[in-house]
UniProtKB/TrEMBL annotation, chain A:
<feature type="transmembrane region" description="Helical">
    <location>
        <begin position="65"/>
        <end position="90"/>
    </location>
</feature>
<keyword id="KW-0472">Membrane</keyword>
<feature type="transmembrane region" description="Helical">
    <location>
        <begin position="261"/>
        <end position="282"/>
    </location>
</feature>
<dbReference type="InterPro" id="IPR001851">
    <property type="entry name" value="ABC_transp_permease"/>
</dbReference>
<feature type="transmembrane region" description="Helical">
    <location>
        <begin position="144"/>
        <end position="164"/>
    </location>
</feature>
<feature type="transmembrane region" description="Helical">
    <location>
        <begin position="42"/>
        <end position="59"/>
    </location>
</feature>
<feature type="transmembrane region" description="Helical">
    <location>
        <begin position="194"/>
        <end position="218"/>
    </location>
</feature>
<feature type="transmembrane region" description="Helical">
    <location>
        <begin position="102"/>
        <end position="124"/>
    </location>
</feature>
<keyword id="KW-1003">Cell membrane</keyword>
TrEMBL record, chain B:
<feature type="transmembrane region" description="Helical">
    <location>
        <begin position="248"/>
        <end position="268"/>
    </location>
</feature>
<feature type="transmembrane region" description="Helical">
    <location>
        <begin position="57"/>
        <end position="76"/>
    </location>
</feature>
<dbReference type="Pfam" id="PF02653">
    <property type="entry name" value="BPD_transp_2"/>
</dbReference>
<feature type="transmembrane region" description="Helical">
    <location>
        <begin position="190"/>
        <end position="211"/>
    </location>
</feature>
<feature type="transmembrane region" description="Helical">
    <location>
        <begin position="274"/>
        <end position="296"/>
    </location>
</feature>
<keyword id="KW-0812">Transmembrane</keyword>
<feature type="transmembrane region" description="Helical">
    <location>
        <begin position="31"/>
        <end position="50"/>
    </location>
</feature>
<dbReference type="InterPro" id="IPR043428">
    <property type="entry name" value="LivM-like"/>
</dbReference>
<keyword id="KW-1133">Transmembrane helix</keyword>
Amino acid sequence: MQIAIQLILTSLQIGAVYILFSLGLTIIFGVMRIVNFAHGHLFAVSALVVATVVSWLAARGFPVLPAYLLAVVAGVAVSMALGYVMYVFGFKYFQRDMVGSFILSIGLVLLLDGILLEIFGGAVRPVPEILPGNAEILGASVTIQRLFLCAMAILITAILYWALTKTKLGKALRAVSLDHEAAMLQGVPYNRMALAGFMIAAALAALAGALIAPISIVTPVIGADYLIKGFIAVIVGGLGSIPGAILGALFVAAIETFGGFYLDPTSATIAIFVLVIVVLLVRPKGLLGHG
Amino acid sequence: MGENLKLPYWFFGIALVLGATLLVSDPYVASVVNIVSIAALIAVSLRFVMLIGELNFATAAFVGIGAYTAGSAITILEWPFLVALVLGGIVAALVSIVFGYITLRTKGPYFLLIGFAFTEAVRIVYSKSMVLGGNSGMVGIFPPIAFDPWMPTFVMAVVALMIFGLYLLERSDFGKILTAIRDNEDVARTVGLNILFVKIACFAIASFAAGMAGSLHAVTNNVISPGDFSFLLAAFALAYVKVGGEDNIVGPLVGAVLLVVLGSYALGLGGHEHIFYGAAVILAVLLMPEGITGLLRRGRDRLMGKGKRHAA
């Protein structure tokens, strides 16, 4: 029982990051019908900036917690600025062009890979412990930091869900993702919605990166693994579907954790792939996909 | 049909490049020539699936399957060189038929992403398989000694044969069905075509070419490892297609030659390969959506006063 609880908690921690990641991917796809492989780099840039700024401030005698909060602000700002540049100079011209946008994003992946390696180097960046200590939940032990990550991810997801269902912007975004032409006929400014959707997704990736930095090994290629899992989550859930992205992310995280414990990490990765194949055989547009 | 194939150009071109490879004696130049040939074949294979309107990122996986098949056939089974080479293509095609039967029911982003996931899953299998050398890969995949001086010519000949074959297929009635599916799958279905079957056939043919490229990579590089066959391989191939232009089969060839040669020059300068390829792709899609061959054609049309060409 204790093992099961421990495994469920671990799935939730990993799942929390996958959810933030796949929500971004699904929003971008829903609004602009594009596939953005450079999304992982927004995540990586944020994590790298956080790691660098925290170490820099901590080395100058700052207390760790304020240093971390400052670093999060810096990381999210840099990452969103990068997202804005990507949109204005690139993706803006490739809306609803799946192949073109994908090719552009592959170019960005290669370019940013090289640039990040040049700026930050390939070395691993340790981040000092922000919230020390452990907590006991039903007999299973979790570090406070991971618990904080989960809580933040749930909070962010809840806010996003509320915003998408209740606010005017959220309703407009959902209208655009269902049928952008009908939405435009109702007076929804499509171009502004596309930018808003892209920036919300960038912010989600940046926050995920900032949250993961203290509990993970930060390297310039940190985004690649999460990107693959995030994409698998949205394929399983259905591209463009918000509940689908959450469901898919939890699915992938659960298989990864339980498979990794009872079998081994390799079999777990292959099991995830088999899951995707099975889902696509039954529902070629994912569990909750419609468009 | 026959008068439109431009066969004299093809025969002259193939004879020219084969003749040129005979003059290569410097080992560095020979290796660049091999890389160019193999890159061109992978790019043409990727473009062949683009004829049905899908981006096939599983190309990287099939190149890997070909390379590992040829590698095991030569080093473990000790089969004859030419048999091992062709076996790489055949195994890749067989795997692609099974994979395609499942995944070609999906389209667009789903097909693209599933190919991407497949590439990564296959790579994990190599790295965990002790028979295939795990993470460090396989070594000692040598062609027979007699082949050694002729390697660039041999590789170029195989590649030229494959590309010419794919060109003939594209210009045949089968090729017209492929573009019909890209333009409107439902219309193609209403005239009684079995769409899934045609798609699988197209996918298997392209994967055979990719597998052959993998075999050639294994025997020219002598060493293969799981890291060689990540999704970046397909990304580079896409760069060749996009920079060269995808409207015509010559496009990927131009792109492969240009980017590989410039890329190896950039490496010599100590530049980063990734930055170079990334910038090339971004500039190509932003500034010349039809690639270099598209630009050339438009320039030629303007010179001849033909005005705007009708979209194909």
